[in-house]
Design brief:
By secondary structure, the chain is mainly β. The chain is built from one helix and nine strands.
C-alpha cells in the first residue's frame, strides 16, 4: 500500500507564548490526478470530523457525519472559516480525503471554542473530504 503523503506548511516561529506553525496535511485518500482544485471564492462542500476536545487529539468534538448533521459548505479562501481550513482545503482536490493538523493560530487561537470543548490555544486535527466544488 502507498504511504500517505505529508506536507509541512510554514516554518515554526514563536509569537505571544505559543507556537505558530500553520498545518500539516496528510493525504488519506488521493484524488484522481485530473480532479480539480478549488480556487479562492469558490463554494466547497466537505465532510469533516474535528478532533481535539479538551486538548485530547483523539477526542472528537464535531462531525458532519454525526446524526442530524450535513456536509458543510463554505467559500474557500475568503476567511469564512478557520485559517487551517481556508489554506488546507484550497490545496485539496475534488474527492481527496486528508488530515489537517492545525496549530492553535490556524484553529481557534487564544479564544478556543468552549461550547465545543476546544480549549484556548489548542492544536486540532480535521479529517476532511472534498465532496463538491462550485
Amino acid at each position: 500500500p502507498m504511504l500517505p503523503l505529508i506536507y509541512l506548511i510554514r516554518e515554526s516561529t514563536h509569537i505571544n507564548s505559543y507556537q505558530t506553525m500553520g498545518f500539516v496535511k496528510t493525504i488519506l485518500k488521493a484524488a484522481a490526478p485530473s480532479s480539480p482544485l478549488p480556487r479562492a471564492g469558490q463554494s466547497v462542500t466537505v465532510h469533516c470530523t474535528g478532533f481535539g476536545k479538551n486538548n485530547d487529539l483523539t477526542q472528537k468534538f464535531w462531525s458532519t457525519k454525526d446524526a442530524g448533521q450535513e456536509p458543510f459548505t463554505f467559500s474557500v479562501g475568503l476567511g469564512q472559516v478557520i485559517r487551517g481550513w481556508d489554506e488546507g482545503v484550497i490545496g485539496m482536490q475534488l474527492g481527496e480525503v486528508a488530515r489537517l493538523k492545525c496549530s492553535p493560530d490556524y484553529g481557534y487561537g487564544r479564544g478556543g471554542f468552549p461550547s465545543w470543548g476546544i480549549m484556548p490555544n489548542s492544536e486540532l486535527i480535521f479529517e476532511i473530504e472534498v465532496l463538491s466544488i462550485q
